[in-house]
């Protein structure tokens, strides 16, 4: 039967245009920051995600579209972009250039419960800075995200940041959390009861339990080097973007170290996490690559599109109508001539009569109709009708572009 899968969508007209707009503006900002595009496959070996995203994460445990392909390989549709970037970095010996800045734009797949702003196939736009351990890199990627949000006119968004420490200082935080949550195991949701021992940080990220323990949960005590790093990130951001330090902000993925952050905004009826990221200094080495520091983020293009207030400048549309067979070529050449000169022009429905062509012009919201018949061809003129005012005038072909520009 011709029916969509649940959680998947057909996007057309406004919805498709909004996503394109988010992509376009992101690309403008990437250019300014000198970030290069990386296009990666949608399908990867499943173990890439198990290793990078983390065995205990919701994504790996139950959200992945994974299957055995014809050759008996266990593969998965990518649920996020970072593991593929790390894999590509290692495989292509990108470390020949010690500092690399990538962005990707692509669809991700997660078999989670669909709701407003949460789909099973969705678009992420992401950035990864690899090889820069300086807190300046953390600040820079955050400011790049801010630039995109501002240019898209996302209003009243909040930037939350935190540091979740490193291999040195996180184990103590983990233990403190395990102790704390074990004491109140009965009040945790079913999922958190099981993940408590394996990944206690995730309890703080749980949509049900997280908010209950915001005040009372033990806080991370950073080692001097992580503390210094975090202080510097904050110093770089100071005065450039309003941010809030949220000691309970942890991320759902396993690979983060030190800085984590999230951009949130209220969108009517939809999820408020618009973009998220952080530093992942140990990931590439843990996947068999060199020891290189990295920091990045991913934004959810649909959620950002919902929050965006940016309006495109509407260009005037011209519709070319030919009323006789003898005027078709003239009209067709005019149509192309308009496009070659940068006008938005449609038409070419020359097998239809005048009335049907005019009807289509109105249907697509054209601002002008140019009507041509045998008479006009003979005189090298045309009839220019302003469809908004209803006024029309006969003009010579050579004056058309000037006339259209004046009417704008
Ligand atoms: P959430 O808390 O909403 O589940 P997440 O922590 O799983 O988000 P990330 O993996 O950090 O999200 O992905 C980064 C961004 O991708 C999110 O901030 C969100 O905007 C977007 N995103 C994540 N999952 C979905 C989804 N199923 N549908 C649409 N957008 C999504
Ligand atoms: Mg999620």
In total, the number of domains comes to 2
- Portion in strands: 15-25%
What order do the strands of the largest sheet run in, or round the barrel if closed? 1-5-6-11-10-9-7-8
Work out the helicity level.
25-40%
Largest sheet: 8 strands, mixed
Number of helices: 15
Q: What is the CATH topology assignment of the largest domain? A: BirA Bifunctional Protein, domain 2
Low-confidence stretches: none
In this entry the ligands are: adenosine-5'-triphosphate, magnesium ion
Q: How large, in whole angstroms, is the Cα Rg?
A: 28 Å
CATH homology-level superfamily of the largest domain: Bira Bifunctional Protein, Domain 2
The CATH architecture designation of the largest domain is 2-Layer Sandwich
Number of beta-strand segments: 16
Instruction: Provide the structure class.
Output: alpha+beta
Residue-averaged pLDDT: 94
End-to-end span in angstroms?
48 Å
The geometry reads as elongated
CATH class of the largest domain: Alpha Beta
């Amino acid at each position: 039967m011709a029916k969509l899968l649940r959680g998947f969508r057909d996007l057309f007209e406004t919805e498709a245009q909004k996503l394109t707009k988010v992509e376009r503006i992101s690309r403008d900002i990437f250019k300014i920051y000198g970030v290069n595009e990386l296009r990666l496959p949608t399908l990867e070996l499943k173990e890439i995600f198990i290793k990078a995203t983390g065995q205990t994460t919701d994504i790996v445990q139950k959200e992945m579209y994974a299957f055995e392909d014809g050759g008996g390989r266990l593969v998965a549709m990518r649920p996020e972009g970072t593991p593929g970037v790390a894999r590509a970095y290692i495989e292509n010996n990108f470390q020949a250039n010690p500092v690399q800045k990538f962005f990707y734009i692509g669809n991700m797949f997660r078999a989670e419960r669909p709701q407003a702003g949460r789909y099973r196939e969705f678009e992420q736009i992401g950035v990864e800075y690899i090889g820069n351990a300086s807190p300046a890199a953390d600040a820079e990627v955050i400011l790049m995200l801010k630039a995109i949000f501002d240019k898209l006119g996302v209003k009243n968004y909040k930037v939350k940041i935190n540091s979740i420490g490193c291999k040195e200082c996180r184990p103590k935080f983990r233990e403190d959390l395990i102790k704390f949550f074990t004491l109140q195991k009965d009040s945790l949701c079913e999922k958190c009861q099981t993940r408590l021992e394996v990944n206690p940080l995730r309890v703080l990220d749980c949509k049900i339990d997280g908010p209950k323990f915001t005040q009372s949960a033990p806080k991370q005590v950073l080692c001097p080097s992580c503390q210094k790093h975090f202080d510097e990130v904050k110093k770089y951001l100071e005065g450039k973007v309003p941010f809030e330090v949220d000691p309970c902000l942890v991320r759902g993925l396993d690979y983060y170290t030190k800085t984590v952050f999230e951009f949130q905004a209220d969108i009517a009826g939809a999820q408020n996490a618009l973009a998220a990221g952080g530093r992942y200094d140990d990931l590439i080495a843990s996947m068999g690559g060199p020891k290189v520091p990295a920091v990045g983020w991913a934004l959810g293009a649909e959620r950002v599109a919902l929050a965006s207030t940016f309006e495109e400048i509407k260009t005037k549309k011209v519709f070319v109508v030919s009323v006789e067979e003898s005027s078709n070529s003239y009209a067709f050449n005019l149509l192309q001539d308009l496009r070659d000169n940068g006008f938005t022009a449609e038409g070419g429905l020359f097998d239809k009569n005048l009335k049907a062509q005019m009807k289509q012009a109105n249907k697509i919201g054209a601002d002008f109709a140019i009507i041509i018949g045998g008479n006009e061809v003979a005189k090298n003129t045309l009839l220019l009708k302003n469809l908004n005012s209803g006024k029309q005038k006969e003009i010579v072909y050579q004056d058309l572009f000037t006339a259209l520009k004046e009417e704008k």
